Amino acid sequence: MTQNPQSQNHPQTQNPQFQAQNPYSMTPPQAAQPAGQYSAQQGHPQQGQPGQPGQQGYYQSQPQGYPAQAPQQMQQAPFARGAIISARNLHKSYGNNPVLRNVSLDIYPGESVAIMGPSGSGKTTLLHALSGIIKLDAGSVLFNGPAGQVAVESLSERERTSLRANSFGFVFQQGLLVPELTAEENVSLAAMIAGVPRQQARSISADLLNRLGLGQMLDRRMGEMSGGQAQRVAIARSQVNGAPVTFADEPTGALDSKTAREVMALLLTMIPQQGKALLVVTHDPNVAAACSRVVYLQDGQIVSDQRNNQGGVPASQNHAQSFGAQSQAGA
Fold it and tell me: How many Å apart are CA 94 and CA 92, to the nearest integer?
């Protein structure tokens, strides 16, 4: 599995219970900032170093009716040092309906971040904005990946597609696997799309699936597998390219409680415990409790960002130690 090179400069991020907080953490609901304002706090306060300005935030593609010139404090807002993703002042509307309103967020390697909120609060839209699936009306998303810093909102559609294929992993509620392909072919396909030769892709895929307890199911199609087994295939697919960031949208929503715990344990074991970042959109408080951080959205704004000191630990230590090597008859 490919390690994020940034972790060499920040060894504390290898800890799945990484405690460093970003400047926007622990914001109580009553202190949530209204759209059009931004706190230009600099540096990374938990690292015990003086605040240092990073790359400045900026506004692009202002929607009609939005100020052509953002307030000075927005323009001066730095991106957080050590973050793998920094989002600043994100705005997204569909028609006259604002979905994201001045959202700023930093994601660090080794974190598992649950994004919660009522239906329609902007959770999935935020995930899509951070991963470059959708274009923003305004705001900036900086991805600090293996190849250097990338301003996601400035990329073309083709470039964003390449970024998702090579640097991001995705796990969805229904898996979105190709039913006509086998487990191994579904995982290998993601690697080949990113340019990995077929034989190498098949070898990597087989190794991942074996580690997830599916070594005897490489040739089975999705209709021959349970929901939990199919989600393991989806997890393998998300990690086949060594993605430093994985986005999961309700990954346990279609599973029973026991299987959901097992799937969440695998996600935590394979992603944040390997120094990578995991973002999970969920309605399930049990999933949120397993994460090291919980961000709560309401009406398109972050109203709470809380560190969970008990999060980031797989629900089943035995399951984690075996890396999911339960019998194929399970989940």
Answer: 7
